[in-house]
Amino acid sequence: MFLIDMHCDTILSLWEQGENASLRKNGLSVDIEKMEQGHVLVQNFALFTHRKEEAIPEKRTMDLMDRYWSELERNADRLAPVLCFEDIEKNARNHKISCLLTLEDGGVVFDDLAMLRNYYRLGVRMIALTWNYPNGIGYPNLSMDDFTDYKQASLLQKVDNENGLTEFGIRYVKEMERLGMIVDVSHLSDAGFWDVVHHATKPFVASHSNARTICPVARNLDDDMIRALDQKGGVMGLNFCGDFLETHAAANGPSRVEAMVRHILYIRDIASINCIGIGTDFDGIHSDLEIPSSAHMWKLQEALRKAGLPQEDIEKVFYRNVLRVYEETL
């Protein structure tokens, strides 16, 4: 069975490890060998820039961009980029894994739609509008301006129903849709989510977010948000971070398949099976992972079968739902 993973932070991890680290084979969750074992059809690679820790944030983004394209060039026999939906079909025929480039924190355009268009020209096809700081586009639920301990439970559960997209953010979303870029609302405030629902004309995604009713953290979506995402034809990617799957006594709790199944079945029951996908957050999380790489995704597949999910629905979760969104948006 194929797999589409909407989010990993592997490029940053490779960049931090230096030039000798390789996407071909490494000790991370994501490398070519593991992706091939897991039958990955499309792997999204996020470029994450911590804007408040960088003197020149756009320089860091360009460093990561260079590393991404360099890895694709060095591994062109096994990998190929996705610039439009037809590339996914072409790459599959050529027995290559499709790679889709994303940004985590769309604020790196610095309130300039020309920069957004330039990122498109550089191959970016999905953007998470915010990370954990406000930017010119909008606001997150969890703003790290509010606290120094990211694991403070009371703040992890704090939602923002007042501060959504800015006027520039609304123009940004419309320009993304015009270009053929996928809007990603993971990390966005609740108010921002509803602004996207109001202004988006195409399906959008929450690339790595779970169900808030099952695990009450603000990074997850509440029931009404899940239903609205489903009605817009969008998809939410199951995040493998243990702290977003279930409540633990301490931070960085284990990531268990049992909890993943609980989220999937819950989302199916309150909305539909059509809005569920995978967004592992591999190489960006620190949980003890029961599924440490795509090579181990068979564990989730077997667990879903035991839970009574038919093969057709398992395929929707693993790749068909996200593939549909890509076909409608790219």
TrEMBL record:
SUPFAM superfamilies reported in the protein's UniProt record: Metallo-dependent hydrolases
The keyword Protease belongs to this UniProt entry's keyword annotation: yes
EC number: 3.4.13.19
Signal peptide (from-to): none
GO BP annotation list: proteolysis
Gene3D superfamilies: Metal-dependent hydrolases
InterPro entries in the cross-refs: Metal_Hydrolase, Pept_M19
Short name of any one Pfam family annotated for the protein: Peptidase_M19
Sorted UniProt keywords: Dipeptidase, Hydrolase, Protease
Keyword Protease: yes
Gene Ontology molecular function, alphabetical: metallodipeptidase activity
Major enzyme class: hydrolase
PANTHER family the record matches: DIPEPTIDASE, MICROSOMAL DIPEPTIDASE
Name of this protein: Membrane dipeptidase
